[in-house]
Every structure is written in structure tokens, then in C-alpha cells.
Amino acid sequence: MSEIINNREYRQKVLKELITELHNGKNIEEVQDRFHELVHNISTKEISEMEAALIKEGMPVEEIQRLCDVHASVFKGSIEEIHHPDKAPGHPIHTFKLENEAVKKYIYENVKKNLEDLKENDTRDNRYKLIENFNMLWDLDKHYSRKENLLFPYLERYEITAPPKVMWGVDDEIRADVKKTKAMLQDDSESKDQIASKIDEVTNKILEMIFKEENILFPLSLDTLTEDEWFVIESDSDSIGYCITGPASKWKPVRTNVEAKEGKEKLANEDSEGYIKFDTGILKAKEISAIFNHLPVDITFVDKNGVVKYFSNSKERIFVRTKAVIGRKVQNCHPPASMHVVEQVVADLRNGKKDYEDFWIKMGEMYILIRYFAVRDENGEFLGTLEVSQNIKPIQEIVGEKRLLSD
């Protein structure tokens, strides 16, 4: 393990040196030769860590943004192939990729063709055709807006901030360039050579952004976000809109209908008055729900088959949950990168190796304690797993005593 860590640290050091050399004026060929000589199979995570480290060390985001196209071209062909199964039609990543294919096709079959016509004959009609092309390319604003306002916030929750900052800056540059190109096409004083140069510049930027999305952003996002988070992104996407094309179909995560599975029979131990009897008292279902929702913790219950059956709905949940999570396998409610950990925890609780497992992580200003408990009946039979999460930072800050009522 130490060798792996040391190698990763070394590669991180090399990556930072390469970008810094570009920043200090070295030509691309020199950097690219050294890159291929010293660094192989770069992962999207390492690129993210590299950019974050440079920002933390004081390199302005604008500088990394200026170098973004350069280092993307250096990395091209060297980023490791991360084999994510093709996402089902309607999944946000599937839709993003459909749009990218449509944009590439539109650039090559329309923009570049009409640009050649303009180069041969600078007529008002040929300019109008290109103006129409760039009116269509302005649809990229919707593609970028979904990325910036739906996808980036989730990445930031996992403290992945550098790639979104850099990419958002380039998105804005492309938006400005599309507007500038349209203005140049409408200005008779702009020569066809100036216009052609600007169109080549902006279309290359768009194609480079497609490369960065599909080889850096999308694999990184698929490794990080849960299916429940993807479902929220998909649900909110219609409100922003799509670029040139739209979703191939409506996407929904696979889930078990737990209510149908349990049937419509009266709940066990529920009497005709709607009370549920416990060993230590009786409560109405409405009272039970209210009690769980008022606890200062997040609760999620996963049954013995690994299916999510319940979560509490407190006012300030730590981890996002929607009703779509009910009936889903617990593995799909966690980022793919941590799936093996979740599976191991559940297996240890189920087979009796452990009765509980604790984790603690920092999330922004919060310090989160996450606890997993094996739930068993009076005979020791495994019924499922209880996850309890709490922000313990306020508790850690308690000092002295409090014996008086608050105002």
C-alpha cells in the first residue's frame, strides 16, 4: 500500500510541475515529451487533486483556466480509460453525451461547411447562414447551465471544487465567444479572415470542452455521485432545458415497490384504533413519524435484503434523500467509490461479525458521525441495518455547564 501511495504522490508532484512549467512559458512539445516519459495512466481524480493543489498553493483560478485547454491537449490520449457501463437512456450523463454528439455533428456538418463557403465567397447570405449556426450553438448555454447549476453543487458537497471552478470559467469564455462571433458576422467592417479565425477559435474551444467533460468531468462525477443524487439532477433538468437534442427517454432508478411487497394487510400489532403496540407502550403511526422527524439525527433503515425501506425527514438533513430512494438497493444510495465499503459493513453486520460500525468525516463546517447498527429481533435474527448520522461539531464545542433556561 505504501508503494501505491508514494507513487501517487510522486505522480501528483510531476503533474503539478508540468502545469507550472506551462505557466512559466515552456512550449507544449517539451512538456508533452516529459509527460509521456514520466507519467502514465492519469486518473480523473488525480487531475482534480492537481488543480485543487495548485489553487491552494496560490495559483489563480484564472491562470489554471487559461491553461485548461493546453493541459487537456497534453493529457489527451493519456488519461486512463475508466470503464463505466453505458448509462441508461434518460440518465443525465447519457443526455449530456447525446448533446455533445449533436454539437460535434452540427459543427462539422454545418458550421465548418458554411465557413468554407464564406472563405470562398464573403456574401451576406453566407454570413446569415453562420449567424443561424451560432444562434443554434447558443443552445450550449442550457447544457452548461445544467452542468453548473445541477451537477457542480453535488460535486462541491464532496469537496470537489477545482474542476468546477476551472470549467465554469471556460464555459463563460465560450458563451462570450459565441456572442462575439455573431457580432462579428453582423459587422461589415470585420474581414472574412478575422471571422474565420474567431470561428476556428470558438469551435475548437467547444470541442475541447466536450473532451474535458467526457474524459474528466463525467467519469469523476459517476465515481462520486449516488443514484439518488442523479435522480434529483434528472428531475430538475427539464426546468433548464437541453442543447440541440434532449433526453432519449425518462430515466428512473430501478427499485422495489416495498408497499406492494408488504401487501395491503393491516400492519402487524396495529389495532383497530390505528395504534401500534410496542413492548414499552403504544403509539399512533403519525406520532411515530413525528418522533423520528424531530430527532437531531438522520435515520435510514435498510432491510435484510439490502433494500431501503425508510428514512427520517428532519428539517436539516445531512445527506440528501428523496422518496425515490425507497425500494432501492443500499449500494445505489452511496457513491460508487465507497460501494465496496458499504457492502462490507452490511455483510459484517448481517453475519454477526460486528454489531455496529462507526465512521466520521468532515463536510465543510460540519463534523459528521455516521453509525451503522445491526438490527436483530429477540431471537437474534437479522432484520436489517440502521444508519444514523449526526453533526457532532456543536456537541464537541460544549464546555462547562448549563443549568438555566434559554431566553
Defining traits:
12% strand; Beta-Lactamase; 5-stranded antiparallel sheet; elongated; 55% helix; 3 domains; alpha+beta; two-stranded antiparallel sheet; disordered N terminus; Four Helix Bundle (Hemerythrin (Met), subunit A); 407 residues
Description:
The strands form two sheets. Strands 4-3-7-6-5 form a five-stranded antiparallel β-sheet. It has a two-stranded antiparallel sheet with strand order 1-2. The chain has 407 residues and is α+β, with helices and mostly antiparallel strands. The N terminus is likely disordered. The protein folds into three domains: 74 residues, no CATH class; 146 residues, Up-down Bundle (Four Helix Bundle (Hemerythrin (Met), subunit A)), CATH 1.20.120.520; 139 residues, Beta-Lactamase (2-Layer Sandwich), CATH 3.30.450. Strand 5 and strand 6 form a beta hairpin. Helix 7 runs antiparallel to helix 10. It is elongated. Helix content is 55%, strand content 12%. It is built from 14 helices and seven strands.
